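note to self: dont lose this again. the chain is below, predicted strucutre after it. 148 aa total, dont forget to put it in the shared folder this time
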Amino acid sequence: MEKKSIYNADVYTEILDRINKLNSDSAPQWGKMTSAQMMAHCAEVMEVSNGKPLQNTPFIARLLKGYIKKMVVGPKPYPKNSKTHPQYLQTTDIDFDQGKQRLLNALNNMKEKEGEKINHTLFGVLTPEEKGWSQYKHLDHHLTQFGV
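---
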């Protein structure tokens, strides 16, 4: 599998185009999130990658952080309906436009911080390659979930 990066201009544009194909009625092909919740979820993941504290990490996740990091930065796609960190769960109603704007802001912030060394609360410092790929991989997983 080719490791794309959100730091690549063409890939960044591809992601923006896919986000812009979403609407409030976009239905998931699996899972329970709405399109607005999915965008808020992806934004939260990016915000943590850019230095926002990851709080209330379960003991088992801290114990298995090396394995989890390997899954996050590795080449294998995420399985459908995989578990996520409690902070990333989105269970309340979210306004579509606000969720979309939050994701676009987080994506822009991620792009602006390309190359900066930021300490991820669970994984430590990620290389630009790991960060660019892992964010693409995560976005691709969820945009595919919504058929875009």
